[in-house]
Structures are given as structure tokens and as C-alpha cells.
Amino acid sequence: xxxxxxxxxxxxxxxxxxxxxxxxxxxxxxxxxxxxxxxxxxxxxxxxxxxxxxxxxxxxxxxxxxxxxxxxxxxxxxxxxxxxxxxxxxxxxxxxxxxxxxxxxxxxxxxxxxxxxxxxxxxxxxxxxxxxx
Length: 133
What we know:
Family: Belongs to the synaptophysin/synaptobrevin family.
Pfam families: MARVEL
Radius of gyration: 24 Å
Oligomer: single chain
Strand order of the largest sheet: 1-2
Order of helices and strands: EEHHHHH
Protein name: SYPL2 protein
Structural class: mainly alpha
Distance between the termini: 22 Å
Largest sheet: 2 strands, antiparallel
Keywords: Glycoprotein, Membrane, Transmembrane, Transmembrane helix
Membrane topology: Multi-pass membrane protein
Strand content: 5-15%
């Protein structure tokens, strides 16, 4: 929800306040999908572990239960792949929206003649990249 993040844009005029701008974009859906699927996967894993350890005889006697478990596991694996791809795309979009060059291009004061704008440091995205991997 980048649209909720404000940042100040100087006006380069004496005794004037900086204008408040907001970032553009809402990339929360892929992240929420990724986290929700992770939580459901964890809960299913705990339930399956209880089934394997506590009700082992029921699991080994019933032929439909292992097949159902297999089908659910395949579905979770597929959705995990989809969620990871969606989160990767969402992160790519966040990087594009917060790229310093893009932010400077949106500032009208940086477009004036004789004005040199510098972004300073580039944001560190290493941990976000690791979350996708």
C-alpha cells in the first residue's frame, strides 16, 4: 500500500514548506496471498503430522486418506509456486515504484532548468529478494 507512504518534496523557494507527495501503487495483494498460503500450509502440516503420529493405524488402513493427503499436498505445492511467482512480481513492481530515478522524475522541482537533484542512497532490497527465493 504505497499510496499511504508520504515523502516531502522541497520547493526550492525560500521560507516555503516542503510539499507532501505520496507514492503510487498498491502491491499488497501478492504479499498477502503469499503469507496466507504460508499460514495455511503450516496449519495443514501440523494437522497432517498429528494424523501421521496419533492416528497411524487409521492412516494405514484407509486407502482414500493417503490419496486425499497426496492431492492436498499437490494443490499446496502448485499454489505455493503461484504465490511465489506473484510475490516476485509484486516485489518487482515495488522496486520499480520506489526507484529513486522514478521518484525524482515525479518531482516538478527537479524538472526545472539549472536544478540538479540527487537521490542519495539506493534502498537495500536484499532481504526482500531473499523472501522471494
